[in-house]
Specification:
mainly beta; four-stranded antiparallel beta sheet; 0% helix
């Protein structure tokens, strides 16, 4: 069994910063790309950032340089640093990974259960 567990969310003042974490655990042989998504109330889930095994990154335009995705491959962990937070960043943030389970050659997709982030005074 494989699971992704997000952490680091909470209540933050506008203009503040925080770092979200996501750790994958279980019978994992290897992980391909990992990514962060978010879903605000009443809106669809959207991709925020992605990082490949080689370290290549991709960001959606709306983050405007405020988000930094990174990973520690040896620990099966991905991070999302968010700076200059605004109310528009309020959402549940989800971790996603494509990985191979030990003993299988196919890539499987996994989602975390999400960590809520609220930006408010």
């Amino acid at each position: 069994q494989v699971q992704l567990m997000e952490s680091g969310g909470g209540l933050v003042q506008p203009g503040g910063s925080l770092r979200l974490s996501c750790a994958a655990s279980g019978s994992i042989f290897s992980i391909s790309h990992m990514s962060w998504h978010r879903q605000a109330r009443g809106k669809q889930r959207e991709l925020v950032a992605l990082i490949s095994t080689s370290g290549n990154t991709m960001y959606v335009d709306f983050v405007k340089g405020r988000f930094i995705i990174s990973r520690v491959t040896a620990e099966n962990t991905v991070y999302l640093q968010i700076n200059n937070l605004g109310p528009e960043d309020t959402a549940i943030y989800y971790c996603h990974a494509n990985l191979k389970i030990t003993g299988r050659e196919t890539l499987d997709a996994y989602w975390g259960k999400g960590t809520p982030l609220t930006v408010s005074t």
